[in-house]
Amino acid sequence: DGHTALLFAAWRGDAQAVRALLEAKADPNAALADGRTALMLAAMSGDDAAVQVLLKAGAHPNATLADGSTALMLAALSGHAQVIRALMNAGAKADMALATGQTALWLAFEAGHTDAVAAVLGRPADFRKDMETDSNGFVSPVNVDNMLRDLAVKEMLLQREGRAQAAAAALEDAAATDPTPAAAGYTLLMR
To answer: For residue range 107-146, what is the model confidence (pLDDT) as tens digits?
Structure first.
């Protein structure tokens, strides 16, 4: 059936073998017993070509493991920016989260992969979409903490590019227009 060979080729990041096995009718959504798909294995390997071959053959970009892990999260954790871009171009959702609440953005940031952080931010999640509010319309402390963490990531990227003063001014301007942390972060990101 080619599943074992496909999974091994994806894990090795061997795009040529992946292509040949798919042409021999291997299932692009083949998975190990623990649920890791060929796409997830290729994403962890960092082989952009293997990822693209699997996606073109119909691999599901948002397949999840029991803990909520996706191929995008595994690529972010491993620091594979090109793979992140390929997955996002194929419809991988950056706002999906682990059971612990961590997104691909947070995993890349936590692992110190600034290129992966930048790749995930290439398609920013809508900061306002999933905010929980109380009966008075105030944002919950957990969401405020998450938004501030995301602002710290953006600030880190802007500093890396030598624009720290411009980032601080933009954040102040955004906060003056709309004082919610989400609006300030989203405005800063969009500049």
So the answer is: 887 887 878 888 888 744 443 344 455 555 554 545 545 6
- The mean of the pLDDT values for the chain is 77
Tokens 């720290």 sit on residue: 164
* 3-state SS string for the chain: CCHHHHHHHHHHCCHHHHHHHHHCCCCCCCECCCCCEHHHHHHHHCCHHHHHHHHHCCCCCCCCCCCCCCHHHHHHHHCCHHHHHHHHHCCCCCCCECCCCCEHHHHHHHCCCHHHHHHHHCCCCCCCCCCCECCCCCECHHHHHHHHHHHHHHHHHHHHCCCHHHHHHHHHHHHHHCCCHHHHHHHHHHC
